[in-house]
Fold this protein.
Amino acid sequence: MVKVRDSRAAPAATYVARPTPERNPGTALDLDWVRDLRVNRSAVERRADTLVRRRTVKRDWQAAWLLRAVTCMDLTTLASDDTPGRVRRLCAKARHPVRRDLLAALGLGTADLRVAAVCVYHAFVETAVEALRGTDLPVAAVSTGFPAGLGPFPQRVAEIRASVAAGAREIDIVITRAHVLTGHWEALYDEVRAFREACGDAHLKTILGTGELGTLRNVARASAVCLMAGADFIKTSTGKEAVNATLPVGLVMARMIRAYRERTNVAVGFKPAGGIRTARQALDWLLLMKDELGDAWLGPARFRLGASSLLTDIERQLEHAVTGRYSAAHRHGMG
Amino acid sequence: MSKVAEIFETMAYGPAPESAAPAVAWLEGHQRRFAHFIGGTWAPPGEGEYFDTVNPATAQPLARVAQGGAADVDRAVAAARAAFPAWRALEGHARARHLYAIARHLQKHARLFAVLETLDNGKPIREARDIDIPLVARHFYHHAGWAALQSEALSGYEPVGVVGQIIPWNFPLLMLAWKIAPALATGNTVVLKPAEFTSLTALRFAELCAEIGLPPGVVNIVTGDGRTGETLVKHPDVDKIAFTGSTDVGRLIRVATAGTGKRLSLELGGKSPFVVFDDADLDSVVEGVVDAIWFNQGQVCCAGSRILAHEGIADQLVAKLKARMETLRMGDPLDKAVDLGAIIAPVQLEKIERLVAQGREEGATIWQPSWSAPQEGYFYPPTLCTDLGPADTIAQVEIFGPVVVLMSFRTPEEAVELANNTRYGLAASVWTENINLALDVAPKIKAGTIWINCTNVFDAASGFGGYRESGYGREGGLEGLWEYVRRVGGRPVGRPVPESAPTAPDPTVSNRPSAAPPARRAAGKGGGDVPIDRTAKLYIGGKQARPDGGYSLTVRAPDGTVVGEVARGNRKDLRNAVEAAHKAAGWGRATAHTRAQVLYYVGENLAARAGEFARRLERAVGLSPSAADAEVDLAVRRLFTYAAWADKWDGRVHHTPFRNVTLAMPEPIGVMAIVCPTRPSLLGLVSLVAPAVAMGNTTVVVPSEAYPLAATDFYQVLDTSDVPGGVVNIVTGARDELAEVLAGHDDVDAIWYDGPAEGCGMVERLSVGNMKRTWVSDGAARDWADPAHGAGEEFLREATQVKNIWVPYGE
């Protein structure tokens, strides 16, 4: 049997690193770049479709990759019926996302394996911070009038400040989709700049709401503006749009991150969110990251999976990896 | 640290092998030894000879396969012949059921076929599984449909008979499907020879034919090397040869079948351009290159092996390509996560290495990724060649490996010029976000398939095939079916041509004193009525031209009376005529309406002089007055017929199964040589020239050698009918002398020849210089007066080539 030659030497592991101090300072708005962007939807869809067929991970590799996916997860609850109790339960799961016996069986019994962050509405930031005390797990708050982002601008900025004051170390903002749809790139840039300013030391994730941007070219252009405005992550969706994170959208955004890095040498993170429910999907996103952006995007510093129910499916797959038997959801603790 | 923990750190890819066990079990079930499949059963080779088929990824033999000898081919052809009457007589619906069953069974055993293909060929299992085998099933489904529709869609046509098919090793089962599905759908029976390197899936397919109850003899598989193929090509009881492979072998086959009356379709090599404009989505372009040249290790006839990038973005593209090449994965083809597998055989590996070395010697920069290819088995890394020009060997020669060359251009015009700077014309890929540019460039590139913003996509509903030295004939779609049918009673084959003039053309030259008795011209009516001497010249580039040689031929009526003289054209006259025809290429870009108007006008002017032409035919050809009038009238009608067709020979939009429009456009072939029948001298010429020019071709016409005066009169009609100079060039003289020059002229794109069998063979044989398309009369006569025989869609098909343009859409 011929051995597969892996094309890249494995880089130093970065998975344990929490978001690095490295921030995206942003750049001046380069409108030429925005206007010159070209995205061919058919070709992008073809690449997205074949990318996940060209790559796969099996057995031990699959288990390891799924564990890594757990560490990249922004464990999220964004429901209108959220309560402090519900949020505390989620935080407890965030501390111990995978059954200890499974971790031990996989040889990671001593690892302090946790998700990347817990993501909640502003109202529950303090609850979450309290519940996660003693860990370095950050709390992320969705902000700026999530999910529509159409409240008065000063209040949206104030909301960021309030969440940061309440202890949020990451802020997931929503952009004004109208700026994209009408091509008001300066307005979009100024808006995100202001949000970035309001974040202070908190990391800024900009949610593009890609399901509402109409075209992949708009996704690329909105990504470029957000990158130049200083986003630390660009994120696909709120989870509330009719269409959420799709691989073609993710591919376009990943390519923009790559282009921005080529222009500025700053490596910005990517967060797909919405509709990611299965272990297979999580692996697909990791494959996309590895092939399009490289291994540095396989850890929480530069890659997040926004998800609520995904973790359960991953746990089931991990148990299968250990026992060889298909698992059931009720065998794993709820979040 | 546990293995999982270690991978958790490195996030490396691991092995993801597809099991070979079921395929190995199948091989073992046959004791790893395979006979031919003839008449529905396994038939050991007559001479008892077997050879190894090898897994290129391991260099280990997989099985032994029979070497087909003459006796084996004989038996297979006899079996196909025996099965033919019943198979063709079968109702279309019944044949559809068989093809449908083949498609269903292929899907049921899809994974076995895919794994076998990967083992035998070395292609990544992903490609065999996701591309080859699904396309194979799709091909049989699609053609099951054609079988069902045959009586309506191909009314008036019948199967050709026994078809010999020879396929290459790069897509073994897919090429089998492309050959067998249309042949069976239209009622032919086949003898197929797989490539010697890759016989296994064809043999498994043979089993499948038996499993679904296909009548014995309808499909016969004879394995073997080139010798077996040669035997099949030369077999006298084979009616048609369909070949996919190298242009060199295609040439041999053309020569071997010349003059036999065997139909021939060839799908040959390529050096397909991959044109990148500065407004393309470059990241998508990079993936396009991956699909273009690193698909199947670049062993693809239509591989986009010549990147032409706009100078403004060429460096950026090179940088992006290099980065992408680093992330390609090469290895065990059975691994589900590799991009590149093994090269088919040492001989191919050596060819690739030799050509890349030559490229380096000629000054090209050769770049390969930093990772190394596996040492075991036959592997070659993806390779990018820059700093070279169109004149360099590797920019011209088909490498058939994972090696791509990159050159730059400045303007769209230059891009087209560079794209066409090749002897091939199989496919091209064009990348731009500007639809105006895309649809401007697509018709200008001389290739059978143009992919806009995509590459290497195929479907059974779309015809695939080449221009120029990439061959002729199409596979897939309606356009592919014509290769496997012929007109019912179209040509009364075997009826000899009523040959030539009563006396052979007089070689006596008129402008030189001669001892021979002078040819006496028919006297005028009145004693003092001395006719004014009329000088029939050549007609080249819209002007009358004296022959280069300065010789003339005497023209006699059937009763021997001298009726005039015509110029004796020679090589140089033909050279000039071909050049004039090329200069008139704008005719092909004129609107069809314009061409129609010109043809109507020619008809109108011929009609105005009908009496004069008819009297000429009476005197010069010896026709009765009524026959002469009838011929002129038919000629006028025929001009009107093709004027009518000019703007009605539409293309199609194929229903290919992804979001795009696939435009099948009939395009003119280019410069056509037309060698006219001896008689009817006027109607024969008009019946051939009119469809050719109606479709936008420009022509070099050799009129009836014995009765050329109608043609020389005719150029006066052309002259007065707004026919642009060079569209119709007329060179009179000795037919076969001229046909020989035209058949061998490498800048003539097609030749039609109506004449004796030996001449047909000569034309077909000499056509191999540039693999021009030929259409010959096989020495049989045609009833030109009958519109069902002397006119119709057959002529239009022969005057055009179908280009498929794939245009994906969606913003």
About this structure: Chain B has a mean pLDDT of 94. Chain B touches chain A through 60 residues (CB under 8 Å). The longest helix of chain B spans residues 125-153.
